[in-house]
């Protein structure tokens, strides 16, 4: 079932917040790029195999806190010492080949439906901004909130300045709502994982998507809608000959990135204090 957004925005006061992995796309967004990173010499075959195994577990099991923490450590260790510009270049060059076939058609329809009703669409993901922002551009969303890896002299240190996970997702959403004038009681949120419960509870209209067992129990107790997304199809096949999505996406996320960047910077500063 694909939920239909209801209600119209007033001066941009309604937003739809989407988790990314297993909500919009069928895989872990970060681990999906293991092959192009290997092809460009950033990782070795052993790391590729380890990433494939981590992704296999990610798909088969509920994303509890321990699993997410192991995945975070794997990714940050893997990226330590990488050149930021090289990573951005690889993502830009391979984005369509890697991500395009993984997008749930139901999620793309829902995003389009929200945008048609004048709602701003926001991705909120624990993956790094280098991955999440280009995916947001591909999908035509307005803003991407994501984790920020620490960078020194143009390379990743393996540490995080801001981890967009758990309660931090809700904090970032509230900061963004204050900046953009959202009425969170009228806003929507979509996620698959119990670890995103703070994100779902931050809005008045939560929907769980392909929920893990723990989140399904919560949804049942709160009478939240439950959606099933299963059709992962290429956006290029889904919208043949339609260049508007990509053209509009760049402008939308470019504007949104400035706002999201300011929100993230404020959260990083607050964390430092």
Describe how the helices and strands are arranged.
Blueprint: E1 15-18, H1 34-39, H2 45-60, H3 65-79, H4 84-99, H5 105-116, E2 120-128, H6 129-139, E3 143-152, E4 155-162, H7 167-180, E5 188-191, H8 197-201, E6 205-209, H9 213-222, E7 226-227, H10 235-238, H11 244-272
- Number of beta-strand segments: 7
**Cα-to-Cα separation, first versus last residue:** 45 Å
Q: What form results from the Cα inertia axes?
A: globular
DSSP helical segment count: 11
What is the element string, with H for helices and E for strands?
EHHHHHEHEEHEHEHEHH
Structural commentary:
By secondary structure, this protein is an alpha/beta fold. The chain has one domain (15-272): HAD superfamily/HAD-like (Rossmann fold), CATH 3.40.50. 51% of the residues lie in helices and 15% in strands. The protein has eleven helices and seven strands. A seven-stranded mixed β-sheet has the order 4-3-2-1-5-6-7, with helices on both faces. Residues 6-11, 55-61 and 239-255 have low confidence and may be disordered.
From the structure above, extract its key features.
seven-stranded mixed sheet, alpha/beta, 51% helix, 273 residues
In short:
The protein is α/β, with parallel strands linked by helices.
């Amino acid at each position: 079932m694909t939920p239909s957004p209801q209600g119209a925005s007033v001066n941009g006061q309604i937003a739809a917040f989407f988790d990314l992995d297993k909500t919009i796309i069928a895989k872990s967004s970060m681990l999906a790029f293991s092959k192009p990173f290997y092809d460009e010499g950033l990782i070795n075959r052993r790391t590729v195999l380890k990433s494939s195994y981590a992704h296999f577990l990610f798909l088969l099991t509920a994303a509890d806190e321990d699993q997410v923490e192991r995945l975070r450590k794997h990714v940050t260790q893997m990226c330590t010492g990488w050149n930021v510009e090289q990573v951005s270049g690889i993502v830009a060059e391979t984005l369509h080949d890697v991500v395009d076939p993984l997008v749930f058609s139901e999620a793309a329809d829902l995003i389009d439906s929200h945008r048609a009703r004048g709602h701003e669409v926001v991705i909120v993901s624990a993956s790094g901004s280098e991955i999440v922002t280009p995916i947001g551009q591909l999908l035509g969303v307005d803003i991407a909130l994501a984790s920020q890896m620490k960078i020194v002299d143009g390379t990743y240190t393996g540490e995080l300045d801001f981890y967009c996970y758990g309660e931090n997702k809700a904090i970032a959403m509230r900061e963004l709502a204050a900046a953009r004038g959202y009425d969170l009681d009228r806003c929507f949120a979509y996620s698959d994982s119990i670890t995103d419960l703070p994100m779902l509870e931050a809005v008045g209209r939560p929907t769980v998507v392909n929920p893990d067992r723990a989140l399904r129990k919560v949804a049942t107790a709160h009478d939240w809608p439950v959606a099933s997304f299963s059709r992962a199809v290429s956006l290029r096949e889904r919208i043949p000959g339609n260049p508007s999505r990509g053209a509009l996406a760049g402008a939308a996320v470019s504007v949104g990135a400035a706002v999201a960047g300011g929100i993230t910077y404020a959260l990083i500063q607050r964390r430092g204090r």
